[in-house]
Design goal:
The protein is mostly helical. Helices cover 68% and strands 0% of the residues. α3 runs antiparallel to α4.
């Protein structure tokens, strides 16, 4: 389609961003539903455990979209360095792994967007604006 039809850059990029954001949110919703059902049935408390696991999964949507935005920004600024988006994601993963092994302090972990919805924070204390934003 890119070779055959005339598509503006903004239209092409917006279609990719829409698909990436909706698919990532759909995957996190599916993981939340499946994980909540499996853990709720295994724990014998489907009512409470399902909503807890589902809420934890849904609360990861804004951090994932932040990484999507960083990658889109890199592509918009300099398309040749778009792979740096993977480096950003990997560095946040290493940061969380370092916190889990008690190598770094929580104040350094707060750099990661995933610290917003970390499993150590009760999901009822999270602000709802980023979830709806």
């Amino acid at each position: 389609m890119l070779v055959d039809k005339q598509v503006s850059r903004s239209r092409w990029m917006s279609s990719h961003l829409i698909v990436a954001s909706l698919c990532s949110a759909s995957l996190l919703l599916a993981v939340g539903i499946a994980g909540g059902l499996v853990y709720g049935l295994a724990a014998g408390d489907l009512n409470n455990e399902f909503w807890h696991i589902f809420g934890m999964s849904v609360s990861k949507i804004p951090p994932v979209w932040i990484l999507l935005g960083v990658t889109a920004l890199l592509y918009g600024l300099w398309p040749r360095i778009t792979a740096l988006g993977w480096v950003v994601w990997l560095s946040f993963s290493i940061l969380e792994l370092a916190w889990e092994t008690q190598i770094i302090d929580w104040s350094l972990m707060c750099i990661s967007p995933f610290s917003y919805a970390h499993y150590t924070i009760n999901i009822t204390n999270l602000p709802l604006l980023p979830l709806f934003g």
